[in-house]
């Protein structure tokens, strides 16, 4: 606040001082200062009377009248230019300053032309350095004032925006760190196993140990050359894909992330006033609309030592001020702290979801090759996914688990689902020849609109149950990790109150002993009368085991998500 007062006051003092600097009856420094000062909004109007008073004080009434005319003419010309150009150019400002000075001083010279020819010639020659001085000082003053005033410290709102972007970029960086560690783990483990198994098998087939040694050396060189070549090609392709995705991510963050079309300052002041009534102190309040046009509020708050204020009380106050029901997210405190802590609220969602799951292992296996996840994201979305690793057992479980782990990390970073699949696909392409392709079934429910976006890569059919009606969402795409470009099918469906999304792995479908397995599974789902997601998942699992003769012939996973409107 002190700087906001002292800086303009300092500029006004300079405005008064420069009016006393004259050269041969002219005042180019004062005109240069005034022209440069016009880069600041309204400032040109404020310093005009100050400079007129200074000229009167130093030079008298007639010079004041002359230079007031020059100042007014300069003000009009510069404002016409500023309407045409959004960012005033100091060189053009200098040109306007010189032009107005030459016109007015020239008129004054013409009216006083009764002087001797010698004096007139001398006067004209003195104008050349005066014009150069006016031009150069205007440019210098323009840059100086811009540095002094325009490039100020960010406001709390802008500072908050930068903090949000920084946190988002940090999450993305952590996700990329995770993907790098997975790549190192996959490659190192495979190379070690390949080397040991290959050498052991080759030695057993050799006739003598001497032959074996020479064969080992020869084959080792050939193997290394081949591995390096293959890895170089695959890594090039993967890096190209990842760099492409990174460029898209950077572009996304460089675009304006929020729209400040709300009366932010007015709302912030009202929130602060309401908080103070409850003995809550808040700062850096940011009220904006996000890219989906939903309200976000972010601030730092603390309470007085004996205040009875609660987090729920803050939420209710903000809801009344913004006119929308709000919800607290990323809550780090059970109560309002005594020192400033960060709080974030988002507009309340219209739907909520519940999930139920069932899982069983293939006969004679210890672990399932399937993995799944269910996440309710702070941004107002529910994410669910099933990954089915090729084959079964610990290997399939390990790599489907890696995919699920990467999905969860990337979802937390806020990346687009298609981008996530392309990045994961590039990880699988760096597998050094080990076939670890995995089917991926993903669903993202928007809890504001109720729409669900399905992304399927080689996955089994997904079902939507609405009363006695069942819809099957099929996919003909290939698993990820097979092609350089990820093969993904995207389908968007509108969900309604009481709908259920049923995701299943291949083992469930393959258990059915009929030609049209998707239709038979739809009939099984249609006959379910329960509205409990967990019970529905168990019913589907038990029916699949029953149809496969009581013994699971493959890993089986069912994930049921129910959606209901909030009242």
TrEMBL record:
The chain crosses the membrane at residues 9-33, 39-58, 91-112, 124-145. Coiled coil: none annotated. Keywords: Hydrolase, Membrane, Transmembrane, Transmembrane helix. The keyword rRNA processing does not apply. The keyword Secreted does not apply. Residues 329-561, 351-563 form the PPM-type phosphatase domain. This is SpoIIE family protein phosphatase. It comes from Eubacterium album.
């Amino acid at each position: 606040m002190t700087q906001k007062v002292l800086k303009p006051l300092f500029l006004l003092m300079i405005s008064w001082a420069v009016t006393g600097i004259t050269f041969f009856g002219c005042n180019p420094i004062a005109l240069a200062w005034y022209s440069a000062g016009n880069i600041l909004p309204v400032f040109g109007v404020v310093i005009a009377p100050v400079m007129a008073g200074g000229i009167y004080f130093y030079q008298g009434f007639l010079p004041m009248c002359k230079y007031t005319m020059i100042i007014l003419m300069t003000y009009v010309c510069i404002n016409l230019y500023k309407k045409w150009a959004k960012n005033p150019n100091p060189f053009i400002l200098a040109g306007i300053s010189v032009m107005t000075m030459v016109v007015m001083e020239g008129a004054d010279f013409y009216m006083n032309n009764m002087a001797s020819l010698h004096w007139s010639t001398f006067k004209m020659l003195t104008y050349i350095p005066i014009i150069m001085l006016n031009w150069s000082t205007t440019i210098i003053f323009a840059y100086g004032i811009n540095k002094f005033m325009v490039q100020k410290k960010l406001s709390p709102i802008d500072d908050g925006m930068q903090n949000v972007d920084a946190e988002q970029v940090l999450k993305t960086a952590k996700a990329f760190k995770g993907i790098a560690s997975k790549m190192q783990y996959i490659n190192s483990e495979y190379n070690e196993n390949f080397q040991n198994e290959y050498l052991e098998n080759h030695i057993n087939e050799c006739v003598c140990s001497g032959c074996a040694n020479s064969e080992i050396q020869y084959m080792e060189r050939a193997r290394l050359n081949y591995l390096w070549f293959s890895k170089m090609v695959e890594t090039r392709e993967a890096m190209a894909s990842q760099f492409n995705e990174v460029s898209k991510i950077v572009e996304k963050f460089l675009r304006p992330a929020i729209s400040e079309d709300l009366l932010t300052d007015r709302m912030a002041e009202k929130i602060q006033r309401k908080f103070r009534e409850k003995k809550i102190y808040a700062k850096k309040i940011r009220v904006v609309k996000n890219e989906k046009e939903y309200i976000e509020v972010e601030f730092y708050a603390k309470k007085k030592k004996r205040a009875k204020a609660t987090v729920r009380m803050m939420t209710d106050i903000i809801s009344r001020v913004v006119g929308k029901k709000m919800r607290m997210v990323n809550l780090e405190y059970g109560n309002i702290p005594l020192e400033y802590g960060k709080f974030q609220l988002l507009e309340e969602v219209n739907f909520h979801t519940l999930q139920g799951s069932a899982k069983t292992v293939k006969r004679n296996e210890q672990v399932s090759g399937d993995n799944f996840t269910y996440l309710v994201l702070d941004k107002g979305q529910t994410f669910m996914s099933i990954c089915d690793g090729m084959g079964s057992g610990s290997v399939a479980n390990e790599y489907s688990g890696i995919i699920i782990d990467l999905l969860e990390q990337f979802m937390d970073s806020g990346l687009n689902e298609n981008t996530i699949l392309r990045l994961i696909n590039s990880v699988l392409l760096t597998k050094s020849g080990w076939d670890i392709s995995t089917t991926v079934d993903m669903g993202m429910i928007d809890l504001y609109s109720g729409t669900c976006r399905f992304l399927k890569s080689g996955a089994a059919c997904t079902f939507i149950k609405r009363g006695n009606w069942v819809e099957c969402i099929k996919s003909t795409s290939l698993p990820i990790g097979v092609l350089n470009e990820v093969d993904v099918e995207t389908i968007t469906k509108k969900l309604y109150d009481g709908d259920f999304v049923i995701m299943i792995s291949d083992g469930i479908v393959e258990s059915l002993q009929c030609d049209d397995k998707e239709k038979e599974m739809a009939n099984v789902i249609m006959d379910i009368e329960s509205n409990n997601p967990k019970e529905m998942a168990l019913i589907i699992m038990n029916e699949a085991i029953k149809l496969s003769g009581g013994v699971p012939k493959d890993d089986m996973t069912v994930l049921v998500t129910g959606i209901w409107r909030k009242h």
